[in-house]
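Quick illustration for those who missed Monday's session on complexes.
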Amino acid sequence: MLEGVGGTGLTVAGIRAEETARPDRLFADPLAAAFVAAAGSPPPRATSRQAAALRLWIVARTVFLDELITAACADGVRQVVLLGAGFDTRAFRLPWPPGVRCFELDTGDVLAAKQQVLTEQGAVAGCERIVVPTDLSGDWPPALRAAGLDPVWPAIWVAEGLLVYLSPGQVDRLLDEVTSLSAPASRLGLTYRNREPGDQSAPAPALRRSVAPDDPAGWLAGCGWAAELASAREVLRAHGRQVPAARPAGRDGSRPRALLISAALDPALARPRPASRRPPARVAAHSQLAVAVRPRPAGQPAAGAAGADHPLPTLLSQTLVAFTIEFDNESEHQIPQQTSRGPAAGARGPWLVSEAMWANFLRFVPAAGVPLGEVAALASVVNLAGLQRWGYITLGPGPADRRARPPRRDWAVRTTAAGQRAQSVWQPLTAGIERRWQQRFGTGEMAALTSSLRAVASQITLDLPPYLPVARVNPADHGAWFAAGRQAGRAGDTELPALLSRVLLAFAVDVERESPLSMVVGAGLLRVLGTDPVRIVGLPGGAGLSKEASSVALGWLKRRGYAVTASGPAASRGQLARLTRRGHQAQQDHRRLVGAVEQRWRDRFGADLISELASTLRALFTHQDGQQRIAAGLVPHPDGWRAHPPYLSRTQAMVDDPAGTLPHYPMVSHRGGFPDGS
Ligand SMILES: C[S@@+](CC[C@H](N)C(=O)[O-])C[C@H]1O[C@@H](n2cnc3c(N)ncnc32)[C@H](O)[C@@H]1O
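Prediction with S-adenosylmethionine bound:
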């Protein structure tokens, strides 16, 4: 059914069908026989020595690449690109973790013929499979980008049985394009054979146009890829398959006939990307969503920084929350989770939690478990019972503990299978979002921000948690974290959210030492209340809090005599709240105290450093093309709860004006996150 190079994939499918039928098979590809049957050509019979060599080669490379792809996904890679996919059925047969997108690139005729058989067979992919008809000897990257490949995230690229059908110049160009679309930690799996005159042991020998370079590792290193080579025999023997001894090497006496190549992009080797290949700073793939970065709403300035008069803690808070929302949007897209409302209501999977639970606790729980006593300080800043209830961890006497009633501090905290899946999604995410920010704002700007945050953070000698703790509205409850002392070098300490959290928490500590109000309340709900009554229903949006957090803070303000509530006139429906005289005074005192602490920080850390920190943070909120630059990362995936009612309008308001809507101090909810997490 397919002529020319397009038909070569059928020969490969035939060999995979044969292997699948063996009792000692090294993989199972049940669809392969259907492709061959549909094409009407019987699988090749291994009668000759060359046909046997071809079979050995194809079985080995299939196993080799199956393992390479599976290992990359176990390390958190979620984009798989099959170049010259042919009749490859990995999308259907490999055990995929959640959130994987598998792009299959080949010519239109091959992909159409493949689709016909898949439809007839009722085949269902185990990951998100996206076909991209294209000519790999031409300008294919735009089609792959349009199909959804995000070059900010690592990918595993596979060119299996493809390169020999491209000219040497086309192969070099293909490698350049792959490299330019690859984030650090991307992987590459290549197969390459050397043509020898008279060697017919490959599909369509007459169509072959290139051979492997003499020094494949050197060739790849030139593009920043650290490569390892393997031979088909090694791979098969490692899997217990008996294989005949190799014939002497090729005619030049040294070069192997066939290479299995795995490579990882090594930033130390990588050369700079040409500017034209850099992905655009905005997240273009999101532009079709219901929530979108859109032209500046009326009343906002076209240029300059939004929130230009925000004090330092507000800038820190809004930047941390913007990072967290981008992190959460991405992890919620990749981890199947359930929520009480929105598109995941009633779904299977653990309950939704936010970056706070990962950064403060789950990242410190190894697969083998850890005694509770060792992580007790961290457990106190998350909701441990919640993490159990929500399906991420188990807590109980360790399996090897024979004591009748071991003390609770010796109990083992262990992650559930769902918790481990979530950990594998979270693990690479902070670095991924940081890379996105470098692309969005520029590496220079991000380096300046990180370095001024580090300069301040390194002078803070408090023992603070890695991320903001579950909020306590009463400042006295933060007690233990105000103690002097410092846990040295925890995992993730140098990441952007950890630096932002550390500096923000230290600021809060200085304010709360002198204030009857916590920052959560003072910079949160108290800030948006006035002596004139306002509708309670509008408070969460105004303060950047969840409904629940807003009502906890209001209850506290009422109990302390700072605020009162009353029923509104019938026409205005619902409850109203206003500040008492005492509340009004406290509001003014709090604002003054924040200003005074910022001034003291200038004296303590140096005015230049604090000015530099504030201005690099403020720069993230400057306008570009009529929108605040930080807005692009706040756009949720279409399947995320933020893109659905009843959250949609608030999400859009946040994307329209981050500086006007993000909280001046985050209130991490005991329900798992910001702004709600439930
Ligand atoms: C030997 S097959 C291998 C298929 C698949 N990777 C596998 O191992 O089952 C080579 C594949 O590369 C595809 N191919 C070759 N040149 C191509 C080009 N210029 N553009 C797109 N696909 C191409 C062919 O259509 C064919 O499906």
